[in-house]
Amino acid sequence: MEFMTTVQYQIVKKQAKKIFNAHTSSKDPNVIQAVQALAQEEINNQLVFADLDQQLVMQPIFELKTKEQMEHFFNEIKAFVKPFERPTDSEIKKLFPKDKKLKLPKFENVDWKEISYLSWFDPGTNRKYIVYRENETLKGVRGVYSTTEKMGICTVCNRHSKVGMLMVSKSGTALGTYTKRGNYICDDSISCNESLTEIEKFYDFVGNLK
Hints:
By secondary structure, the protein is α+β, with helices and mostly antiparallel strands. The chain has seven helices and five strands.
């Protein structure tokens, strides 16, 4: 039974890496136990377990001493992640009615259990598209994307990465006027999704663009 969102899955992976690092960098059992306790507290704060079986799925996290064990754990718990529901091409096109020649990427290689939002860049128009669900409703934003070739903090995932500026123009209150809103986000949306552990930051970001 799938009981984790993608964000919760990324949170568990983050805690697993902390435990793995504790096992590999320290021989002090007190240090390891402290890291394990903090990880368990974070997981319990973020996940609601319906029964004991769901809790037992997480138990191997506390004994991750090799990279192989950690990768095996990630693959095992991935079966319990609710995937991002793949939208149809027509559903996506309805989100962007002004883009008559909207070019959609190939979605065959997308791992739907690893993403909280779908995003792609159209180099022909310099536009970046973001498709997401909020309260079960499919939504989308798009804007002009400018690559900076610089490292910075992503507004969405709060990771230090190569970022660019996404700028959205909206009609102003007066005829013929426009307002622009934007911020820096990761160039690589797949890595951004993998680092996204606070979905509220994402909703704040897209909300500010509207």
